[in-house]
Amino acid sequence: MNLKRNLLIAVSAFVFSVGVANAQIVIRIGPPPPRPVEVIPAPRSGYVWVPGYHRWDGHGYVWVHGAYRRPPHEGAVWVEGDWREERGGHVWHAGYWR
Q1: In angstroms, what CA-CA distances link 24 with 19, 34, 43, 72, 79?
Q2: 22: pLDDT confidence band, cut at 50, 70 and 90?
Q3: In whole angstroms, what is the distance from residue 62 CA to residue 27 CA?
Q4: If DSSP codes are grouped into helix, strand and coil, which group holds residue 63?
Q5: Quick one: which of 66, 75, 92, 95 could link to 52 by a disulfide (CB 3.0–4.6 Å)?
Q6: Closest of 79, 25, 81, 29 to residue 53, by C-alpha
Q7: Where are the alpha helices (H) located in the chain, listed in sequence order?
Q8: β-bridge mates for residue 61, sequence order
Q9: CA 84/CA 82 separation, integer angstroms
Q10: For all residues of the chain together, what is the average pLDDT?
Q11: Is the pTM here over 0.70, yes or no?
């Protein structure tokens, strides 16, 4: 009986954590336009510029500076994150390596 209970708790915790990880906040106020940034040369060969973006901090938008990042594998391409109009507001879709 304890095994079933422990298994149920473990599965429930996993399902809950996946649901929380995929949760998205809808912001009613649209983000400001991206800031113009002068991109300097890469610090090392093979690094890719990942642009900055506005992040919602619970009270307002905060600028997150862009930076050079090392791709996780050869041929990886950075897909920029963006704010999309969804569900009556704005939802952030984070950037990722493809």
Answers
A1: 10, 21, 34, 25, 19
A2: low
A3: 13
A4: strand
A5: 66
A6: 81
A7: 2-21
A8: 56
A9: 6
A10: 86
A11: yes
- In terms of residue numbers, what domain contains 62? 2-97
For the stretch 71-74, contacts whose Cβ atoms lie closer than 8 Å and that sit 24 or more positions apart, written own/partner, are 71/46, 71/97, 72/97
Please give the full DSSP string across 11-24, using - where no structure is assigned: HHHHHHHHHHHT--
Give the count of domains, the chain. Answer: 1
At 62-89, the pLDDT tens digits run: 999 999 999 999 999 999 999 999 999 9
Residues in CB range of 17: below 8 A, 6 or more apart: none
8 A C-beta contact, residue 77 and residue 83: no
- Whole-number pLDDT of residue 7: 46
pLDDT at residue 27 tops 60: yes
Per-residue pLDDT band at 23 (split at 50, 70, 90): confident
Count of C-beta atoms within a 10 Å radius of residue 73? 6
Q: How far apart (Å, rounded) are the C-alpha atoms in residues 83 and 74?
A: 28
